[in-house]
Design goal:
Layout: E1 3-8, E2 13-20, H1 22-47, H2 55-83, E3 91-98, E4 106-112, E5 116-120, E6 136-138, H3 145-151, H4 157-160, E7 182-187, E8 193-197, H5 199-202, H6 207-225, H7 235-259, E9 267-272, E10 276-281
Antiparallel strand pairs: 1-2, 2-3, 3-4, 4-7, 5-6, 5-8, 8-9, 9-10
Length: 283
């Protein structure tokens, strides 16, 4: 297992890291990244009593904090590789989300590499849940040669899917020179979904396939939480019932990716905008 994860609903922090540099090196690098980032951010968010005058001030401050956390993780990976020659060349991608407790309609995404975050529009809970353009949006920026070629209009997004440069990363943690991170604030509505994953999922399933499976869960969720008289069950039952279903949709996504020939470790974290998070990963 070269993927590592972290889920902390207490502070609203969720992380996926996908290691590289051989099985052992990749596993060590991804674990260091997750441990260092989560440790630094947890200390900041639990110990700090900082209040922000505006969303803009919060965004500016948090972006600085996230960059410091990633820098610390990068340096730790490099130090460990210097200390242990068998780990030289190891590195990892990382994607994480932070959902501020004082404004759960806002969240932040940071990534280095090609692990991704998606926002899936849950829409009106009484409305249709078909997959299709506009229901799913990739929030992260892939740091690969193929993605760079798409941004420069050398190749199309469709061509990038099968490009030999798809997995040649231009940015990752474990670099001895400066790396570039992508950090941005987003907004979401109640019922929307945030999905974090390693490229083991997106190599096998396209965006619409992912979207459809998540929204299929929404249909099932309504069956579970609805009564014949249309009343909703208690908040506690709703929380644990929905969390169970989020677990299941993660399992289904991984199963579908493996059925299509999954060649890599697959990690998925699925969060819904009603204080529920779930994770399942394969080995």
């Amino acid at each position: 297992m070269e993927d590592s994860t972290h889920l902390d609903e207490t502070i609203g922090l969720f992380i996926v890291a996908d290691g590289m540099g051989g099985h052992k090196g990749g596993e060590v690098a991804s674990k260091i990244a997750v441990d260092e980032v989560s440790k630094f951010l947890k200390a900041k968010f639990l110990c700090s009593a900082t209040t922000f005058r505006s969303t803009e001030q919060q965004e500016k401050t948090l972006k600085k904090i996230f960059k410091i956390a990633l820098k610390i993780a990068n340096e730790k990976i490099l130090d460990e590789a210097k200390r242990k020659p068998n780990l030289r060349g190891m590195g990892t991608t990382i994607v994480f989300s932070f959902i501020p407790k004082d404004n759960t309609n806002t969240f932040y995404i940071a990534n280095v590499g090609d692990s991704r975050a998606y926002l899936i529009n849950g829409g009106n809970q009484e409305g249709a849940v078909e997959e299709g353009p506009g229901r799913i949006k990739q929030l992260t920026e892939d740091h690969s040669m193929a993605a760079d070629m798409v941004r420069k209009h050398y190749i199309s997004e469709e061509q990038a899917k099968t490009s030999p440069y798809k997995h040649m990363l231009t940015q990752h943690l474990g670099r001895s020179f400066n790396f570039t991170s992508y950090i941005k604030r987003f907004e979401w509505k109640e019922g929307d979904y945030l999905l974090l994953c390693s490229d083991g999922l997106t190599d096998m399933l396209d965006d619409n396939e992912i979207c459809y499976k998540v929204l299929e869960y929404q249909r099932e969720d309504k069956k579970i939480i609805g009564r014949e008289n249309k009343e909703v069950i208690s908040r506690e039952e709703d929380y644990y019932g929905s969390k169970y279903l989020l677990d299941n949709v993660c399992k289904v996504l991984i199963q579908k990716a493996n059925e299509k020939g999954g060649r890599d470790n697959i990690t998925v974290i699925l969060i819904q905008n009603k204080a529920i998070a779930s994770l399942l990963r394969n080995g």
